[in-house]
Amino acid sequence: MEIVKALLIEKTGGPEVLKQINKNVGNPKEGEVLIRHKVIGLNRYDLECRKGIRKLAKFPVILGREATGVVEKVSTTGNNNFRVGDRVVYCTAPFGAYCERRIIDQKYLIKIPDDISDEVAAAVLFKGMAAHYLLYRAYRALPGAFLLVHGANGGVGQILCQWANHMKCKVIGTVSSDDKRKIAMHNSCQYAINYNDGNFVEQIMEITNGKGVNAVYDPLGLVTSKISFESLSIFGVYVSYGQISGAAPNINLSMLSSRSLFVTGTSMHHYKSNIFEIALTAMEIFAMVKRGYIRVHINKRYRFDEIKKAHEDMENSQLSGLNVIVV
C-alpha cells in the first residue's frame, strides 16, 4: 500500500469544495496498471461537474479526466499492453486524475510518442478529441463552410479553430472582449468578433453575404445561444458542447422551422467510447501537432497544490488557452 495525495469533492459548489486527502493506492489487478502522474490537464468539464452543471452519479468523487504519467506497476496476471516505464496519456477514463498516482484500466491508456512532451499530451488530447468529434461527427465540416466558434480563445476553441482552418473552412471566432481578438486571430480564425457587441448578428451577416453561418459551436450556452440561432443559415446546425455561462433557454420548434435549423447537444463519452476510435483519433491529433497544423502553447502551469487556485482562475475567466497542472 502507498499513500498519495488526492483532491476530491463531497458536494457541488465553488472551488472551496475541493478537499485534499490522503488515499491508499494498492496493486493493479488483471488488465490494470499503476501510473505516477506527471501532468494533469485542466478542463472546464471538471469545473462544470464541480459546480453541478453536469450531474455526477455519486459522491465523493476525485475529479479530473485527463493526465499523463509513467507506468510504475503492471498486473502479475493476464496480458499487459504496457511495460514499466512507458509514458502514457488518457482522457476518457472515469474521474480520478486529481491525484499523484492511480490504478487505471489499461484500455483507457495511449502511449505518448517520443517527440511529444508530457505537457503537450496532457494539454491537447481531451480538447483535441473534442475538436475532432465536433468537426467530423456532430457537424461534418466541409471546405468553404462558415463556422462560428464561440470561445475561440479557450482550450477547445483554439484547437477547433486551427483544425477547421486546416480543413479549409471559413472560421469566425468569438471572444468576450476586444483585447482577446488577437488570440483568436493567432489561432487561425479568418474573423474575430466580440460576442458582446450590440451589432454581432449584423457583422455575421456582412461576413457571410447575408446567408448566415453553416454551423455554430457553442460551449457557453446562456450568453451566446440567442445570437447563435440568429446567425445560422438555412439548414444551419447549432452544436452545444458546454454551458459555461449557464443553461441555454428552451428551444421551440417554431424557431427551428423558421429556417429548417438543427440542434444537437453533445458529449465526449458518446462520440469517443470505443478504444479503437480513441487510439486512432489520438494518433491523428499527435500527427497534427507534429506537422504544425495544431500549435500548442501552454498558457499557465499550476502545481498540484494549486488546483483550487486553478479552478478559481477558470471560474473568474482569468484563463484562456491550454493550461496544465504539473504534479
Automatic annotation (TrEMBL):
Keyword Methyltransferase among UniProt keywords: no
Keyword Repeat: no
Keyword vocabulary terms for this entry: NADP, Oxidoreductase
MF terms (GO), sorted A to Z: mRNA 3'-UTR AU-rich region binding; NADPH binding; quinone reductase (NADPH) activity
Recorded superkingdom: Bacteria
InterPro entries according to UniProt: ADH-like_C (IPR013149), ADH-like_N (IPR013154), ER (IPR020843), GroES-like_sf (IPR011032), NAD(P)-bd_dom_sf (IPR036291), QOR-like (IPR047618)
CDD domains: QOR2 (cd05286)
SMART domains to which the protein is assigned, alphabetical: PKS_ER
Domain Enoyl reductase (ER), chain residue ranges per copy: 13-325
Transmembrane segments: none
UniProt cross-references to Pfam families, sorted A to Z: ADH_N (PF08240), ADH_zinc_N (PF00107)
Any one Gene Ontology cellular component term annotated for this protein: cytosol
Signal peptide positions on this chain: none
Protein name per its UniProtKB record: Quinone oxidoreductase
Source organism per UniProt: Candidatus Mesenet longicola
Lineage start: Bacteria, Pseudomonadati, Pseudomonadota, Alphaproteobacteria, Rickettsiales
Gene name per UniProt: qor
